[in-house]
Amino acid sequence: MAHPLSGANLATLRSVFTDAGPADDKGAALAIWAAAYARWPSTALERQFVRLPAPDRDGPPLFVLGHWRSGTTHLYNLLAAGGWGYVPPIEVGLPHDARGLARLLRPMLERQLPETRWIDRIPVTPTAPQEDEIGIANMSPLSFYHGIYFPRHFDRLIDRGLFFDGCGPHDIAAWQSDLRVFLAKIAAGQNRRLAIKNPVYTARPAMLRAMFPGAKFIHIHRNPVDVFLSMRNFYARLLEVMALQHVPDDLDIDGTILRVYDRMMNTFSAQTEDWAEPDLVELPYAELDAAPMDALARIYDTLELPGFAAAAPAFEGHLAAVKSFEKNRFATDPLVARKLADAWGRWFTHFGYPLPSVEPEGAKAQREAQA
User: What is the pTM of this model?
Assistant: First the structure.
């Protein structure tokens, strides 16, 4: 289980390795295939005999949307502490075996969890809420993570996994079926209304709304400067530990970040243009960071969600527990400021953030010459 793709089934592995392989890390690839073959009887039995409830049996899901590094994890952890159903780590790692083999192996698997997430210092415990995308990557060839696993096809697989580029109706219908099955397995194990956090879903709110009538949506956004700088670290760390192929020397991470953010925000804005309360609430990360209880109260009030008073002590307890957590901090520079002002200027304005300060062309050279 060293690599996240070790939880995939044989059909998914055949699809992604045929499309994007071979792997340069032969040892990791062999372990991934061996794990799938070893689990095949369990996977087949669970698919054939385990009966699952509807994923929205306990009520339409609450979806936490927002570009990566915008505060989605902090908000999701709070909601889970307050009693919402959530996606646990073991189910993410073994989605095909979540109701059978994973339950039997849970004590052993929990001992193997990393102490913290790879991209930051957020603890990973057996009850730490997770986004579902790694689980979906183990069930479907349509996932953002396949671009990270197979970086020779980075942009193509990123765009297919985020925006369904090049996918036909059958591909999309199969992804929707996989999502329903995954969420049904989560619902079966918790008997609570689900909250689901996945930045990928920021690019498909209309589809989720059609799949789950009555679903509620929170969109959290953050100063784009902080998002950009943190995304550089995000990709660097994930490619370092997850890539099964050598990362191309000419991989333009900055270009991918700039392009994906702009397209994701365009898509989200277009699809939610006519949405109103109580279906959607927009939340600046700074508001959640500065006054979390007020932000949570506004979420519950805007979306007409019951139970805030009952959940408030649990929210406060979680906030007290993470009070000393130190966020990653990254320095910016004039070149980054110019990139962001040029590429994302409209989004700074749209979300109410000040444009980054941009030096005139040649100012740096002039300062150096004067020194």
Answer: 0.91
